[in-house]
Specification:
Number of domains: 4
Structural class: alpha/beta
CATH architecture of the largest domain: 3-Layer(aba) Sandwich
Shape: flat
């Protein structure tokens, strides 16, 4: 039994407070909770007909769970008393702690709780639909289930909204995390997923407290055969800080968090609708074994729209095998064109046997999921009796073929909650709406690495950063084995001619001391030796000069950036390089450590990738050398605590076998980090 088990699955509940406490008791009674409910109130005799206790000392025993619907001043003392008597855990509903800047009061609350599990503060609580234990001070839209998914949210309102879903998702638990003063989202997910009645989890995440612990939790869930889908908020431009590099602008929190979740094996959804549709898949089937689909439609319009809307997804429509085509032809006759998606027309509508044969012919080991596109009529104005044979046929065909089956409504309204619940009970996946349904299939079919990967430990932002000038940065790269252009350094324009005497024109001149040299007029290309001094005289902001031989035309240019992330450890961003890097935004982000295969896959996923592999007769770029160079940069930042950020833009790729050159390099070193300053 884990440390949160008594709190999440209590047999006795103590409730403190007035109106909010009344709501908790009401919800427990409505849900049929058969454990003990102990209202604690100094003045009231009964709440909802249940006798009140005047104080904690009057309780018959230590409660398994407590809901603290009292103010932030009183809650600390009560929390300490509950901890001392051995309470199984408490929900602190009160706000006015760290979320309003009062970190001291929050620390006092944590100290009062001691070893007793504490959710919050500023926490709405927990809904347990399996056992009827509702530590929840408000109405909700859930129903009792025997098994289902867990919803864990950093937003109470999001949790309430999800509880009102009418998509048939069986929700076993809904839990809010509040401020995570003591108990983290990962702690809660770990406990809820340990319940054998929980099939999967959906998370609404605003921020991750401990990336390493979160990754470990996901790995534990995967080992138990349970998957997680999450929404991560705070990913818009408004959430990104002012950037001192292309990497920071291109790989803000959104890219880093998505890379982290993907590497952990978490499915990332972009909306509650997506998440709920994915959860239905995970609940019934777990992760899909692949992305091969068949679809059956009773009109050409539905078939065409299904194919069109799926066209932008990573979904595959396999050809119908010959034997299956013959079976379809026998059943449907010569007027039906046999294709996938299939328009089976309405000739067989209502004939359960022929519908079963037709659907079965679109199933088998050559497909991962078979979908019947179907919208049920409104129950308030129409009859759905004629739709029953289609349901029975789909169920029977799936059982006969051993294929997982789904029913996809073109509109979300096309599958009512009643029908969705009924289909799930029959082992049929109900998907509500083309857009979210097809996206859910795509997400659930994504391959995942099932390992115990751990990110590097995160460190707080440095108190100060120092720019390493480009000449010194390139020297560091060269010493690590990464190619750089032949070059020389001069402190003043008058010394450039002598410094560059051994270099072959045309030449590049750069003014040192700035991260963004192109934007500030500190780069001049195609110069002769005689032109160096004149060009340098125009660079009044330069703190020295670097002159280099111009590189030959590349087969490709990459941006490569690495930066320490205060949450996820170290991020790696690769993408289309050059002065248009930010404009194009063609990047992929990984969280270190990353293997050569992961780096190569990231490069292959860029829109630039065809140009690197020999597009329309162009020479193929030296991708192997690029992967080696990127791996070397990863090793450099991983083994150099003083380096905060590295960016090469561009990393020039020569034709295959020709290697790479770092044409521009920016390295930021850290001054003392906050914890280092405190320690000194």
């Amino acid at each position: 039994m884990d440390g949160l088990s008594r709190l999440f699955r209590p047999r006795s509940v103590a409730v403190f407070g007035g109106w909010w406490a009344e709501n908790v008791i009401e919800q427990c009674l409505k849900a049929g909770f058969d454990g003990d409910i102990w209202p604690v109130h100094p003045k009231r005799d009964k709440i909802h007909g249940i006798p009140c206790f005047r104080s904690l000392s009057e309780l018959p025993s230590a409660p398994d769970a407590a809901f603290l619907g009292i103010n932030r001043h009183a809650v600390i003392e009560v929390t300490a008393e509950l901890a001392a008597m051995g309470c199984g855990g408490a929900v602190c509903f009160a706000s006015g702690f760290a979320e309003t800047g009062d970190a001291h009061r929050q620390q006092q609350l944590v100290e009062a709780a001691g070893d007793m599990p504490l959710l919050g503060p500023n926490c709405y609580g927990v809904l347990n639909y399996l056992d009827g234990a509702m530590l929840w001070p408000d109405q909700h839209g859930g129903r009792a289930v025997d098994r289902g998914v867990a919803i864990i949210s950093q937003s109470s309102n999001i949790a309430i909204n999800i509880s009102m879903q009418a998509r048939g998702v069986p929700i076993a638990y809904t839990a809010c995390v509040g401020n995570q003063a003591q108990t983290s989202l990962a702690d809660m997910a770990r406990s809820l997923l340990a319940d054998p009645r929980v099939t999967a989890a959906g998370l609404y995440i605003e921020g991750i407290v401990d990336a390493g612990d979160f990754a470990a939790m996901v790995a534990e869930a995967a080992a138990a055969g349970k998957s997680i889908v999450a929404i991560k908020s705070g990913k818009t431009e408004a959430a990104r800080h002012a950037a001192s590099s292309h990497t920071a602008a291109l790989a803000g929190d959104g890219a880093a968090s998505s890379a982290f979740l993907a590497r952990c094996g978490v499915i990332e959804a972009t909306s509650p609708e997506e998440m709920m549709e994915v959860l239905k898949i995970l609940h019934l089937f777990g992760r899909l074994p692949g992305n091969r689909l068949t679809a059956m439609c009773c009109s050409g319009g539905e078939a065409g729209l299904t194919a069109d809307l799926a066209g932008s997804r990573q979904l595959v429509w396999p050809q119908i095998p010959d034997a299956n085509r013959r079976q379809l032809a026998e059943t449907l006759g010569p007027l039906v064109a046999l294709a996938n998606p299939l328009d089976y027309h309405t000739f067989i509508w209502g004939d359960e046997a022929k519908m079963t044969d037709t659907f079965a012919a679109m199933m088998g080991d050559w497909v991962d999921l078979s979908v019947l596109v179907i919208d049920f009529p409104r129950s308030d104005r129409c009859s759905d009796a004629a739709w029953h044979p289609a349901v029975a046929a789909m169920k029977q065909a799936g059982e006969n073929s051993g294929t997982q089956v789904a029913m996809l409504g073109s509109l979300a309204e096309g599958l009512s909650e009643a029908w969705a619940i009924s289909l799930i009970d029959q082992g049929i996946l109900p998907l509500c709406g083309f857009e979210h349904g097809l996206r859910a299939i795509e997400l659930a079919a994504q391959p995942v690495q099932q390992d115990c990967w751990q990110p590097h430990p995160a460190s707080p932002p440095p108190a100060d950063r120092q720019l390493v000038d480009e000449a010194a940065a390139k020297q560091m790269l060269a010493e690590s084995g990464i190619g750089v252009p032949q070059g020389a350094v001069a402190a003043a324009p008058s010394r450039l001619a002598g410094a560059a005497a051994g270099l072959t024109a045309p030449l590049v001149l750069k003014g040192l001391g700035h991260a963004h040299k192109s934007e500030t007029g500190l780069v001049r290309l195609g110069l002769t030796h005689d032109a160096l001094a004149g060009a340098a005289s125009t660079m009044s902001a330069a703190k020295g000069f670097l002159v280099e031989e111009m590189a030959p035309p590349p087969a490709g240019e990459l941006l490569v950036g690495l930066r320490r992330d205060p949450v996820y450890g170290i991020s790696l961003t690769v993408g289309t390089g050059g002065v248009e890097a930010e404009l194009l935004g063609d990047v992929a982000t990984l969280i270190l450590p990353a293997s050569r295969d992961e780096i190569r896959a990231a490069l292959a996923g860029l829109r630039l990738a065809p140009l690197l592999t020999g597009y329309r007769g162009r020479p193929a770029a030296d991708i192997d050398a690029a992967v080696t160079a990127i791996q070397t940069l990863c090793d450099l930042i991983e083994t150099s605590p003083a380096i905060d950020e590295i960016e090469i833009n561009p990393l020039m790729l020569a034709p295959s076998g020709g290697g790479v050159l770092a044409l521009d390099a920016v390295i930021w070193n850290t001054a003392a980090r906050p914890e280092e300053e405190n320690a000194s």
